[in-house]
Amino acid sequence: MAARGSQKAHHWAGTLTPRVCALLVALERHRNMGEAAAELGVLQSVLSRQLAGVEKSLGVGLFARTTRSMEPTAEGMVLVREATRFLAGLEKARDEIRAIGEGNSGRIRLGVASVAAAVLAPQAIAAFRRQVPGVAFAIRDDTSDRLLDDLAVGKLDAAVLRIPRAGHFDFAKVELYDEPIRIVARGGHPLAGAPRLDWARLSGFTWILPAASNAARGQIEMLLDRAGVRLAAGSVETLSVPLIVGLLATTDAVAPMADSLARRLVTTEGFSILPIACPLDLEPVSLVWPKGACLVPALENFMAVLVETARGIAGTPAAGAREAGRRGLRALPPQPQTDRSPRP
């Protein structure tokens, strides 16, 4: 019984092709064989034979013929309703496929390291969505090593991070800009008004540091060690920007952070960039994706916007950003001028 039912369902599905669905919808709309045939671009005799064949195949009458019109039967109205939905679904699928091909739809899985999470990534996504609101984003924020692992196994399409020097030969990249590290504290911090500082003056303050796996962490500790600065007991280790901001605002802690984020917090939170150089030898902030990957148009377009946004944040891009056009990144039409200040 189940097999016979399955065969019958398959028979109906095979009969109700897009062409037949268009026939049923046209006949119901016009209630006239000649007008429906004209809409579909076929002879009236051909349309009549097609309808008769469908009715014979399904074993039910779909339209009652009169001398002046054709009226759908109850069975016919059921099929017309479903045929209308089916054709609308096909049209929607066609439009979505076309939008994906043009880069106006789809989903981008983007990895974002802390160096880009507060300024670059939000500004680039906002600029892109002003042009292409139909593209969805799935954002993963984590350390560079973990994001590269996710890229390698296909969990991400691209990532913005500092790519470690060692290994990682399976990735293509565009170097966006070199971003220095600043030491930041709250506006009323005891050291905020000092004209100059040396590292010894920072001794005794609580430090908020990135995780041990972060590229900057080891170099910061070496700087402090060479200057004879001991980290105060109770230092905090985190990459969470909201937590760092909250701790800085309510304590006398100090924290190293990317220049773009530091400048934004000066504007939005009244924080201070302490007057001390932090000469770290860090890799540039880069846009990274699996080497040889097929970049869908939406991702290609977003990558172009991200490169342009990086130019606005850094002023002078890293050398790789100037070569973005040679790396397969599609240029978008001219964009409205974006706000290049460090506000979010």
Sum this structure up briefly.
With 344 residues, this protein is of the alpha/beta class.
Strand order of the biggest β-sheet: 4-3-5-12-6
Q: What is the overall number of helices?
A: 13
Number of domains: 3
Q: What percent of residues adopt helix (DSSP H or I)?
A: 40-55%
The main pleated sheet reads as: 5 strands, mixed
Terminal Cα span? 64 Å
Query: Could you name the CATH topology of the largest domain?
Result: D-Maltodextrin-Binding Protein, domain 2
Radius of gyration: 31 Å
DSSP strand content? 15-25%
Which class of secondary structure composition applies to the elements? alpha/beta
The strand count comes to: 12
Looking at the overall shape, the CATH architecture of the largest domain is 3-Layer(aba) Sandwich
Provide the low-confidence segments as ranges: 319-344
Mean pLDDT: 81
Features:
single chain; 344 residues; alpha/beta; Arc Repressor Mutant, subunit A; D-Maltodextrin-Binding Protein, domain 2; 5-stranded mixed beta sheet; 3-stranded antiparallel beta sheet; 13 helices; 12 strands; rod-shaped; disordered C terminus
Helix and strand topology:
Elements: H1 2-15, H2 18-30, H3 33-40, H4 44-58, E1 63-65, E2 70-72, H5 74-102, E3 106-112, H6 114-117, H7 120-131, E4 135-141, H8 144-152, E5 158-162, E6 171-177, E7 181-185, E8 208-209, H9 215-226, E9 236-237, H10 241-250, E10 255-258, H11 259-269, E11 272-273, E12 285-290, H12 297-314, H13 319-322
Structural features, described:
The chain folds into three domains: 2-101, Winged helix-like DNA-binding domain superfamily/Winged helix DNA-binding domain (Arc Repressor Mutant, subunit A); 103-178 and 282-327, 3-Layer(aba) Sandwich (D-Maltodextrin-Binding Protein, domain 2); 181-273, Periplasmic binding protein-like II (D-Maltodextrin-Binding Protein, domain 2), CATH 3.40.190. Helix content is 46%, strand content 15%. It contains 13 helices and twelve strands. The chain has helices at residues 2-15, 18-30, 33-40, 44-58, 74-102, 114-117, 120-131, 144-152, 215-226, 241-250, 259-269, 297-314, 319-322, and strands at residues 63-65, 70-72, 106-112, 135-141, 158-162, 171-177, 181-185, 208-209, 236-237, 255-258, 272-273, 285-290. It has a five-stranded mixed β-sheet, sandwiched between helices. The protein has a three-stranded antiparallel β-sheet with strand order 10-7-11. β8 (208-209), α9 and β9 form a beta-alpha-beta unit. α2 (18-30) crosses α3, α2 (18-30) packs across α5 and α7 (120-131) packs across α12. The radius of gyration is 31 Å and the shape is rod-shaped.
